[in-house]
Amino acid sequence: MQGFNINESKILKRILSFDNSKGDNQNPSLAKKGTHSNLNHQSSQNPTTCFHHHTKKIFVGSWNVGGIEPPKNLDMEDWLETQNNMADIYVLGFQEIVPLNAANVLGPQNRRVSRKWNSIIGAALNKRMPIKKGERTGEPQKVYPLKEQEQVCEKSDGGQDFQCIISKQMVGMFVTIWVRRDLYRSIHHLNVSSVGCGIMGCLGNKGSISIRFCLHETSFCFICSHLASGGKEENRRQRNIDAAEILYRTSFPADPLHDMPEKIIDHDRIVWLGDLNYRIYLPDFATKSLIKRRQWETLLKHDQLKMELTEGHVFQGWHEGAIEFPPTYKYHPNSEDYIGCDQKQLTKKKRAPACISLRKREIDDQ
């Protein structure tokens, strides 16, 4: 495999700074840094006890890899910013880690590829060589309860700064979360909920993987989704339906003793990431011209998702940061040319470029 390059315009990332504090007369706050958009949800309760007050950085990234396995020498340090700007927690969502063909959608789960991704991610975060073939790569599909997390931490290499606490695959979607070792004891109520919205409205070629946990006394929920594709009007409506279905059908185990939320929007902090598949609603020649002139504001006026948000059709109450980068969808492999927009490149499909970004939801105090 040649030149599986990481390019910021094609792979989205953001570092969030969260204030993990809950107490009387104290509202949760979100400080945003970076260049890419996010979607976060904040709510406030009124506990009678003041808990921890720490600020943590959470890196959130999304990447549709187009069904291509990562090469052994893939260097992810630039994307993960491991040189100068290390976060405390890494939440990484992938789409199409395997081709979305009938064998993968209807057949048994191919977990070999997700293990390979985890090996490369662990190598980048812990600055070591990826695990070689035949060596153990752990159990990326297992959710470790708190006590088991501590045991894993104690058994791990003393030089390993980050440990995968959970990863989950559903067909081509894959979510993996890595945390600093000293945060293990502060994380609890780790759960996952998957929703299939694909073929027949239930298969996992489209849908979401949602993971929630508590860090100290603050609950987090991360939703990695891959919504319906296609540039037709019915495809746009189906994307709205998929998003609504994910919010409605995602459910986490109840825990009355700890007052844990069961639904996505009931968590303190929420980030929605992934391939949302909304397109730029302009003729191809106009889109290409605006991209060349870096007219992002004009492009965003014709972004399907922006239009749906404005009209209140989807993601009501969700917000995102400034978008100051080219459309991220969909390039010819290892090039800066969009599929379907270059007459020199022969392709069966015309694909309108789109901004596939991370988004956030903020809810005012009730």
From TrEMBL:
The cross-references to SUPFAM superfamilies, in alphabetical order and at most eight, read: DNase I-like (SSF56219)
**Chain positions covered by the region annotation Disordered:** 19-49
Q: Where is the composition biased (Polar residues)?
A: 19-29, 36-49
Tell me which Gene3D superfamilies the record gives.
Endonuclease/exonuclease/phosphatase
Domain of life of the native organism: Eukaryota
Which segments constitute the Inositol polyphosphate-related phosphatase domain? 54-364
Pfam families recorded: Exo_endo_phos2
UniProt keyword annotations, A-Z: Hydrolase
State the similarity comment: Belongs to the inositol polyphosphate 5-phosphatase family.
Protein name as it appears in the record: Inositol polyphosphate-related phosphatase domain-containing protein
